[in-house]
Write a structure and sequence with these properties.
This protein has helices at 3-26, 57-64, 67-70, 83-91, 102-110, 155-166, 184-189, 203-211, 236-239, 245-262, 264-269, 281-291, 310-322, and strands at 32-34, 40-47, 73-78, 97-101, 115-120, 127-132, 147-150, 175-178, 195-199, 215-219, 230-235. With 344 residues, the protein is α/β, with parallel strands linked by helices. The chain has 2 domains: 33-124 and 228-340, Periplasmic binding protein-like II (D-Maltodextrin-Binding Protein, domain 2, 3-Layer(aba) Sandwich); 127-222, Periplasmic binding protein-like II (D-Maltodextrin-Binding Protein, domain 2, 3-Layer(aba) Sandwich). The longest helix has 24 residues, at 3-26. It holds the Pfam family NMT1.
């Protein structure tokens, strides 16, 4: 090529190259921001398992108290649409971190989703049968002949037969009515079902507030069946980003939960304006109060929130293998990233 023509082409391309470089430096792919004090922060997204409710108070409290900022993180909290979708979004990198139910994590890994737990925080399952006091249900045996709202394929419905078996009942003793998750509370209030399968830290306080009737529970954990519930997860892409990002996020989440546990009132107050679907303050307070009873097993009592043990993980895997949600059980390390998890 003639030298003059080549120089003209290079001269014409130079402004385009500069624009490209500038756009890359300042555009949407930039994963950092700067705090008010001038500290460089990593922009991080956390997608919840559902729309914000009381259980999520520690994340909002940690953000309000600048716990995440202290660990170099500019946190954006996003509402979720179920743990399964959160696991998928985390595994594909559409969110940096997720908050999801462990059964959904186990099933996702079983199906090839590239995601790992960084620590389960709800280590005593909130899974329960929920009903109005007027039903006169005091023990699992009283469920015989009752109709219970459940959602086909979810962890609650899959483990319900194990719960019944451990308490001398058979699935034929109870009618499980397949109900959309959002419709279970309405099914009980309207009398279409006698009870529902839900989380003691979620549906029960909402149902009690709506119906103005006392709600009672048969908790799985109090009747022979316990397994891990909600916790922090990350996908392979996030685990490889920025070296210690996962470790810093884990530390910030654990610290936020510890702070919220000591100040439940302010933690719940920090959720104000989190969502248009946010439950009333009294419901949030009751949900978080219940959540705080779920943070440990006997093996982790006295340890920091989110600290797990291999034995508890193994027990959970075994339960969901029995329930049919895990077809090919793997070693604990395939599900839980202990290296980036909470230390003691």
């Amino acid at each position: 090529m003639h030298a003059t023509r080549r120089n003209r082409l290079l001269t014409g391309l130079l402004p385009l190259l500069l624009v490209s470089v500038t756009a890359t430096a300042c555009g949407g792919d930039d994963k950092t921001t700067v705090s008010d004090s001038g500290e460089k922060l990593d922009k991080v997204t956390l997608t919840l398992n559902w729309y914000p409710y009381g259980e999520h108070a520690p994340f909002y409290y940690g953000k309000q108290r600048e716990v995440f900022e202290k660990h170099g993180i500019d946190l954006e909290i996003r509402a979720g649409q179920g743990s399964q979708k959160t696991v998928q979004a985390t595994g594909t990198g559409r969110t940096d971190f997720g908050w999801a139910d462990t059964p959904a994590v186990l099933a996702g890994v079983d199906q090839g989703v590239r995601v790992k737990s960084l620590g389960v925080y709800l280590q005593t399952t909130p899974a329960s049968v929920q009903f109005f006091d007027a039903e006169g249900i005091d023990a699992p045996a009283d469920l015989k002949g009752k109709t219970v709202a459940g959602t086909a394929g979810d962890a609650l419905t899959k483990t319900f037969p194990i719960f019944l078996q451990k308490n001398g009942l058979d699935l034929d003793d109870v009618e499980v009515q397949n109900t959309d998750p959002a419709g279970k509370i309405a099914a009980v209030i309207s009398g279409r079902t006698d009870a529902l399968l839900g989380y003691a830290s979620d549906q029960g306080p909402i149902m009690q507030n709506k119906a103005k009737k006392d709600v009672s529970y048969l908790r799985f954990s109090e009747h022979g069946l316990n397994f891990y519930s909600n916790g922090l997860i990350a996908g392979t892409k996030t685990l490889r980003r920025g070296g210690d990002l996962a470790r810093r996020m884990t530390a910030a989440v654990s610290e936020s939960w510890a702070a919220a546990e000591k100040s439940p009132g302010p933690a719940v107050a920090a959720m104000e304006g989190a969502s248009e679907q946010l439950p009333p303050r009294e419901v949030l307070a009751e949900q978080f109060k219940t959540t705080l009873t779920l943070l440990h097993t006997d093996a982790t009592r006295g340890k920091a929130p989110g600290a797990n043990t291999e034995a508890d993980w193994k027990q959970t895997i075994d339960v969901f293998a029995e329930a049919g949600m895990v077809k090919s059980p793997k070693p604990v390390a395939e599900y839980w990233d202990a290296a980036n998890g909470v230390k003691g």
